[in-house]
Batch of 4 targets.
Target 1
Amino acid sequence: MATHAGVSTQTVVRYLRNFEGIRPATREKVRQALEQLDYRPNPIARALRTNTGNRILLFLHEISEAGPSSIALAATTRAREFGFIVEVIPLESTDAAAIRSIVDTVDQAYTAGVLAFAPTPALEELFSLIRFTAPVLVERNGNGFDADTLHDDVEPAMDLLVAHLHHLGHRRLFLINGPEQWYSAQRRREGARRAAKNLGLEIVGEEFGDWSARSGSEIAAGDLRDATAVIAANDEMAIGAISSLAARGFRVPSDISIVGFDDIRLAAYTNPPLTTIRIDFSASGRLAIDRLLSLISPDVPRGVGEAIGRAFVPRQSSGPAASDHP
């Protein structure tokens, strides 16, 4: 490779590690040589040669759900660009003892870094106590691997949903929250409550679900306390609520509006299509890898410039406040 480019081996190494300070003409020589030789890095050979790992362990809850699966796919793709392999370890339980057992059975050989999804305080503490052989990045807020600045107590995107309902004339809101101990559920609940207070809207009632459509359906089957609109903490619970209300004879949004959060693929195809907040989970996965690689090696560029997008997506499940409502 170096001979083909007419440069030293050290220069090729510096190029592959994205070092600054290489003259443009020299950089171009190396780039052309890599292209002509169809160079592909061999991470396994590198790991064996340097005795450093090329594996990244990703401990992730609810991998079958839209957000976590998007995070895992984006993280895997991003890591591959740097010669790393992501091994996803699904965590189907939030029980600390069960998760500790899973972690203890994972082979950490040739592990370069660890990403851990800790949606509750108990699991965040657990991962902080586990001894790993490589750098660890623990995500705690539940919206994907956001930057540190988003590790606060309020979900800012709830302002968009509440402002939308306020504009439509809604003044009485009911909240279908996520699991009470989850960081993301807490942030979305507090975001909705703060936005409602700022706009003079009343939270007439609230219940905690478990992120599932079933729990949203069960809550909407109960007393919504004359609310004109329901804010669900995720799309699945919102979809369950729509189904339950339809079974009771209520029309959405003519009788009551429903909004969700996440913008899962199904959200655009419900009856009616669901108003929601779109989260760029793929950006979360890429940023997670960038942040972890910056812990593994300072030579790896850190993706600090990428923001986790949040966008309001208005659809037909929300409409003007009705005078006759549940």
Note: The first helix runs from residue 2 to 5.
Target 2
Amino acid sequence: MSKKRRIFDIDLPEEGETFPAGKPEAAAGPAPRRSPMAAAISENAASLRDRAQIEAQIRAENDALAAEHVRMKKLGLIVDLVPLERIDAEKLTRDRAAGADEDLAELVASIRDIGLSNPIRLEMREDGRYELIQGYRRLAAYRQLLQMTGDTDRWGTIPAGILPRGEGIDQLYRRMVDENLVRKDISFGEMAALALAYARDPETEQSDPDKAVAELFASAGYQKRSYIRSFIKLLDRLGRDLKFVQNVPRALGLKLVAVLEERPEVAEQLQAALKGWTSRTAEEELELLRRAAGAEPPAAVKPTATAPVARPGKAKTVFQVPSTLGQAKCTAANGRLEIRLDRDFSALDRRRLEQALQRMLDGLED
């Protein structure tokens, strides 16, 4: 049986028609799908580019913030809550005279009711404690509030601007003075006492009180500096005996200085009247000074046989003494002996401290 052959129709190209070389072009339509691996690689590359851009932006922002932080820190504008027990006020002599502050009660009430409007200024020490630069009364108010209430959560820390370490002692004094020059209640007696303390401070380069006035109170007018220098003359003669120099009005102080320069014996009379009169009030002391300024012999409220006291000089002696507690830095001047040591003397028993000082003072008479 014979097999039947199949016949296929083949269309041959017409004359002049050619076949295309290679693969025919793909028909128009959607692009072929990529493999999952190729898609993952592409997406990862795009993600890495985006991440690199974000990281660069974050680094730029952090650098800007760090630069701003450094700038603000140099200006003392970085504020933190600092525990009161870590704050000392020993580096600078304060321009606030020692004694009762009649206006402190008002400041305490204001801070208790509305809070602290202006942070204090501190300098961080190498031992981790802080040294007060500005804000003595604000710090005193916080300490009083803590003592009154016992509320350590509210009054145990105080807002403070932290100054960087290393600023010169002269500049720190200027910071304190310039802030307090705007105080209406700071007296010429207090400013004169600060100038004297500045000149006697072994850490400062200036030992002349008159020149110290020019450096410390450069922001003040010429007339005010002249008044401060006049009160320095008053403190030179009576500073060791005056208890309420911060209460002496400008007019009385200037008149009294003129009387003392014209009649030096009046200074001796005042010294004799003030010696041992520890129970006097500010008004009683002022009345005594008014009589002296009126050229009337000051009445000796408590007569004593004390010899005239020599005028304090401007010289000072600075020396160091080794001890079991460390190297003590000492400053000796007329009417003043200062000992600086890295030790919290307030933590010592008072009786023990008094006995040590008594032995030292008795030894000076040998």
Note: Residues 316-363 form one domain.
Target 3
Amino acid sequence: MTQRRWLRFCAYVGVGAAGTGVQYVVLFALVSTKLLGAVAASCIGAVFGAIVNYVLNYHLTFRSTGRHAHVAPRFFAVAAAGLAVNSVCMFLLVNDIHLPYLIAQCAATACVLATTYVANSIWAFKTHTA
């Protein structure tokens, strides 16, 4: 990985930490108040986190000059795929393997990070390096 790619990946992880923080706060709040189960709460949190991630990735990570009308649908398509990966991971880890939901969410987050970084790099923000 070149230095430029490494720095962009680090920025992506840093920006993602902000969105992930939002997701985890929503997850914890909804589960601890018993409003929703872990899988549904994680999905709702991921939607809020994706909004934070879009704004920060657009401006900071990728320094996009693309029109929001073009970039946003691509980003949110990638986010929807990430939401699907997150949902499947959470369902399997919480319901089948019986991991505590916060540990399951950490594992799901790692899976989503790997898949969405590549897709956002080469497609959503129209850069040609991963």
Note: The chain is about 80% helix and 0% strand.
Target 4
Amino acid sequence: MKIFLTIVVIILLVIVAIYAHTLFRGRGLIWHQILKELDIPEKSQVAELGLNYAGLFVLVAQQLNAPGKVVGINIGKPEISQREEKRITENRVADRAKIVDGDLLNLPLENRTYDYVFSSFSFHSVKPAINRGRAIQEAARVLKPDGQLVIVDFGPINEYESILNNMGFQNVRVVSTGWIGWWGGPWLGTKVLVASR
């Protein structure tokens, strides 16, 4: 019995350690790699939907120069706006970073304006599934015809691939991030969707 309990405790500790690694380090590694591969031009217009990964918003702003700008859509969490406004001030990027309160189903952004639209762990929480489809349509609406949509998330990300294909996106790919994106284990892994028309 002691051996069994010891094994259970070890397994639980490993699961917690993997989860903590993804939460505190893995997400950053994933986004750093994405941004490196995208090599975003400094005058780009970028929208980040959800602001669910602290640090991404300012990280993008630091890669831009005015008139390049990143607009972050805060989805109803005042503490996130306060956190990111503080980061904007501390990192001196106010000339190229702006936060707007909004809704993923009705983005307060103009059509075909953004070179890049990013979402980090936001879409999985949109329910029911039909609303996720609407949120994906909204993300596509604000994207320039030659822009790129990048979604980092877990959950039903393959749904988004078929929705985008039906909307006329020609180049949609979904890749797993491997163990650095595991939320406790491979049963809940992070994937990256990249789409362009």
Note: The helical segments are 2-38, 56-62, 78-90, 129-141, 157-166.
